[in-house]
User: Fold this.
Amino acid sequence: MKNIHVFVKKCKQSFLILFFFAVFFLLFTQNRLITEGIQDGLLLWYNGLVPSLFPFLMLTQFLLTTDAMDGLAHFLETPCKKLFGVGGQGAFVILCGFFCGYPIGAATASRLWKQGRLSTPETQRLLSFCNNTSPGFLQLYVCGTCLAHRIPGWMILLPVYGAALLIGLIKGRRPLPRTEENGAAPAVPSGRGWMEDSIQSVLMLAGYTVLFSIIAKMVTAPTGDVTILQSYATGILEITTGTRYISRIQPLYLPAQAMLIFTLAFGGISCIFQTKAFLTGANPKGETLSVCRYAADKLENGVLAVILFLLLRFLTGRLL
Assistant:
């Protein structure tokens, strides 16, 4: 076992060294593409992420520094237990995860977990279905801007949210591993710092947005026009740019529609890295969360959403 650990460590070191030299080489040989990627990433962050996420980050961070959530947790304790197998503190995570967009659900779950209000198994379960694309993004950007309503909005919303909800309900039937009762939450910190946390979080998102914008630019650079495979690859990397490229495929055949649904439910590797930044650290018991498990759960979300979408297409085709 020790030899395996040493081997894995050496592989990681070798990969990091190769990655460093590859980036160093690209900085000199692909300077124009990198500059364009940085510009595109910053514009996407400034025009898209800041206005859509920063207000929610401020609101959730502020509420989590008060005892305002205790009343909501007490009121929704029973339905949360029966439906999803988590305590009432998970209710706020569920609301944020379904209505506020990436990565607010993960940020909220992580904050409650680090405060000791959620156990590690509860948090890991909530992460499996409570970190989703916001309804505003789906309706306004995807259905309106990208697709020009070529696909009905409900045909996109139902598979994306239905898959997440179904996964939550299925996992809710399984009992969580027994842990020590959280009991009363630790003393809730004062409101001081919630603004700083929000600003730090949105700046961290800027770094990941720029990084994956550069990678997406590299993926689409070799050919003049973006090919179907390049559109799919970009969707796996980054949700906003990938959605734009996939929606431009003409004609938008069923495989492209299915890939669009997968992209929206999966969220892209960029969102996984953004989520990872919120999940670092440990809770008061010294426990950590698994980012790999979260990534596997998002893959499960994507596959299930595609199955539901194809089922909807079949049923509507038969009925209409």
User: Anything to note?
Assistant: The chain has one domain: 34-174+191-319. Residues 34-174+191-319 form one domain. Residues 101 and 137 are 8 Å apart (CA to CA). The chain is about 75% helix and 0% strand.
